[in-house]
Amino acid sequence: xxxxxxxxxxxxxxxxxxxxxxxxxxxxxxxxxxxxxxxxxxxxxxxxxxxxxxxxxxxxxxxxxxxxxxxxxxxxxxxxxxxxxxxxxxxxxxxxxxxxxxxxxxxxxxxxxxxxxxxxxxxxxxxxxxxxxxxxxxxxxxxxxxxxxxxxxxxxxxxxxxxxxxxxxxxxxxxxxxxxxxxxxxxxxxxxxxxxxxxxxxxxxxxxxxxxxxxxxxxxxxxxxxxxxxxxxxxxxxxxxxxxxxxxxxxxxxxxxxxxxxxxxxxxxxxxxxxxxxxxxxxxxxxxxxxxxxxxxxxxxxxxxxxxxxxxxxxxxxxxxxxxxxxxxxxxxxxxxxxxxxxxxxxxxxxxxxxxxxxxxxxxxxxxxxxxxxxxxxxxxxxxxxxxxxxxxxxxxxxxxxxxxxxxxxxxxxxxxxxxxxxxxxxxxxxxxxxxxxxxxxxxxxxxxxxxxxxxxxxxxxxxxxxxxxxxxxxxxxxxxxxxxxxxxxxxxxxxxxxxxxxxxxxxxxxxxxxxxxxxxxxxxxxxxxxxxxxxxxxxxxxxxxxxxxxxxxxxxxxxxxxxxxxxxxxxxxxxxxxxxxxxxxxxxxxxxxxxxxxxxxxxxxxxxxxxxxxxxxxxxxxxxxxxxxxxxxxxxxxxxxxxxxxxxx
Length: 650
Hints:
Immunoglobulin-like; flat; mainly beta; 38 strands
């Protein structure tokens, strides 16, 4: 009894195991639609299973290896067919039932004829997009309220690629080995924005304008971009104009019009537009159907398995002078038996961005010329590090001794001087470095109120500056020279001197001189040109000028006349008129270089020589100036004749 029970249980367990093994071999995932499957041919990777269509489950009775070979052939044929460029005969005009699965919308039956009625015309392949805009009822809305925009983003293809590379989707076979590698080729579907704008309500017999805008938002250009528009028979095409590309038109048997806009190439981030003017002849609505497509691209690359190596060597001068630049040569060699890809070199000191070299074949070498400036005295350590794909790295060090001239500058001049005097400044230049200073140039900048006196060695005196070229100053040597300036105005005058040389730091020094100013007044009197007629008004002009470098204060002027001539009025200032004098109000300030002109008008009562005297006084500076002139007055001849006539009559 027990033996029988044990035998029955054993047979049941063996049967269950056999059923499980058969079901595991035959179980495959079901996918409703499969366009392409990647089948790796590398024997070291696990084959990716093909998916079966739900309607062809009879294939499950075949062995797995046979079904894999059949599906691989089908994928190869599909890929080869996708590589063929579309032509005008490949896609004839079709009805709405003939739309491919990749289209967003197909042309309406009312506006698109059948294939058999008209000769073939280019229509979109599977990757096309459509803008189906139905003519709304008379609601007064614009087309922008009901317009539809379509943009190809390529998210599906990118998601599949990400799953394959990272191994997050499907079998973890040969594709999972690509994780962490650099992709040789990258592709994505074009990012294109198509927008149609125009009125949603138009009138019979009136022109309506529609505009189709296209924008390529992709990072690369696209080729053979097509836009198709179908118009009913009773719509007249008044004008069709595109900003770029070619336009074609064909009338079909039912009178419909097929318009195609082809742009052979659209650059990245570029835009274009198509403007269409139409005139309806009948009072009935219609659908504006716009679809577009782009010719697909394919990518192909060959892969080699290699083992490259990198070696570096630097050639250049062993000594440099501070501030100078020298050329160095970096040799990057690949002694390995494989090609080195994406080779780049980083230099220290130098730019942070690596120098791109690219591909170095096996046994090949690349030379990189670079310029290096000696920015620090002492030993400059050059270091080059080369990197490439597959974690290749090599480095090399190179030492350069940098010598530097170091300048020191002093300017010696008087601490105090009077305005108007000449002063001498001495320049002392020393080279404290360990290299000669070549092409020495000395510049002296003069402040306002200080003018230069030309001297030996001066080469430039423009804009109040002086310059001297001194040639070469050897290491640990000193040189002195003088220059002379004229102090014109008062104040603290700072003379700045700078020295510069090739490969040396620029140095500067200053010397300040306190200049004391003095006011210098001058009095000028211009009397009327004689002789003058008695009784006529004559003018005496007095000019007061400060020729000094300091402001004169409390300047007083008194105009005096001899007997028989009296002042009648003044101009240029205010004055009190008293018999024989004009007492001007004091001038509170008279700046350096300032001039004041005062006029005194007078009349003589008798003939003869009459004197005019002007006296100028000032407290700061203490000044007293006197200027005297004489004018001859005579009787007017006409008046004298009249007087004689009156006397004779008497």
